[in-house]
Amino acid sequence: MNRKPTAGWQVFNGFNVIFLTAISLVMLLPFLNVLAQSFSSSEAIVKGEVLFLPVHFTTINYQYVFSDHAIWRSFGVTVYITIVGTLINLIATASLAYPVSRPEYMGRKAIVIMVLITMVFTAPLIPNFILMKNLHLTNSLWALLIPGAISAFNFFIMRSFFLQIPSEIIDSGRIDGTSEMGMIWRIVLPLSKPVMASLGIFYAVSHWNTYQSAIYYLNKPTLWPLQVKLRQLIVSDDITIDPNASQFSGLAHMDPEGIKMATIIIATLPIIIIYPFLQRHFVKGMMVGSVKS
């Protein structure tokens, strides 16, 4: 029987709508301001005339960014470590989480405890740097990929998902003569699309926003990811405009804020575009571990 909502419930529901709308605007409006500045003229930005809509609309900022080889090189580095790093993360995490989720594997409890310890006690920076140096990983993109191959938090999420796979399915595969690798590839992974998509988003966003590790381990500007290049633009005003370039004539003596904002948009947009395509799996993966049989 449907009950009519009480006055208290309607007030509470209305308060929730107002509160969540306000929170959404707090998160959205700064992005709209950056987007508006990226399409505005330098004069309007310097005078503080830009709020949420472009003033003196122009695409010159994006033209500069697209013509800057250093920014594109950093963008390529970020795309590379995001794709390769996410694949390494998912393979390594699944390779560890699956065995410790099956009751027939000995020593799984000890491994879980060791992984749990790493969530409580983390290695200091200096020993980490010395380790990377002794392994000859400094000034190499592998320094951004190997140390964080397995996230303890994501490991427990994936292990929780694997625990929900019925043992009967695994046993039936073994009875049919399927090898362990074949069973993982044909049975376990197809059932694990939600958790793989969810953790893939977590890992990909982490790699896309790589900053501290690059600062610590990379001294070559040619290896800097996009976030480090963006920091260089914002903090040091390291923007050089060729006054002889006809498309940038008139920008040589202007404020570079618009170029910075265009770079921020380019650094943020790919993740925003990719997320809707994985949202369905992401929502399913968020329920991993919430229901136990």
TrEMBL record:
<keyword id="KW-0813">Transport</keyword>
<keyword id="KW-0472">Membrane</keyword>
<dbReference type="InterPro" id="IPR035906">
    <property type="entry name" value="MetI-like_sf"/>
</dbReference>
<feature type="transmembrane region" description="Helical">
    <location>
        <begin position="110"/>
        <end position="130"/>
    </location>
</feature>
<protein>
    <submittedName>
        <fullName>ABC transporter permease</fullName>
    </submittedName>
</protein>
<keyword id="KW-0812">Transmembrane</keyword>
<comment type="similarity">
    <text>Belongs to the binding-protein-dependent transport system permease family.</text>
</comment>
<dbReference type="GO" id="GO:0055085">
    <property type="term" value="P:transmembrane transport"/>
</dbReference>
<dbReference type="GO" id="GO:0005886">
    <property type="term" value="C:plasma membrane"/>
</dbReference>
<feature type="transmembrane region" description="Helical">
    <location>
        <begin position="12"/>
        <end position="32"/>
    </location>
</feature>
<dbReference type="InterPro" id="IPR000515">
    <property type="entry name" value="MetI-like"/>
</dbReference>
<feature type="transmembrane region" description="Helical">
    <location>
        <begin position="183"/>
        <end position="205"/>
    </location>
</feature>
<feature type="transmembrane region" description="Helical">
    <location>
        <begin position="142"/>
        <end position="162"/>
    </location>
</feature>
<keyword id="KW-1003">Cell membrane</keyword>
<feature type="domain" description="ABC transmembrane type-1">
    <location>
        <begin position="75"/>
        <end position="278"/>
    </location>
</feature>
<dbReference type="Pfam" id="PF00528">
    <property type="entry name" value="BPD_transp_1"/>
</dbReference>
<feature type="transmembrane region" description="Helical">
    <location>
        <begin position="258"/>
        <end position="278"/>
    </location>
</feature>
<keyword id="KW-1133">Transmembrane helix</keyword>
<feature type="transmembrane region" description="Helical">
    <location>
        <begin position="77"/>
        <end position="98"/>
    </location>
</feature>
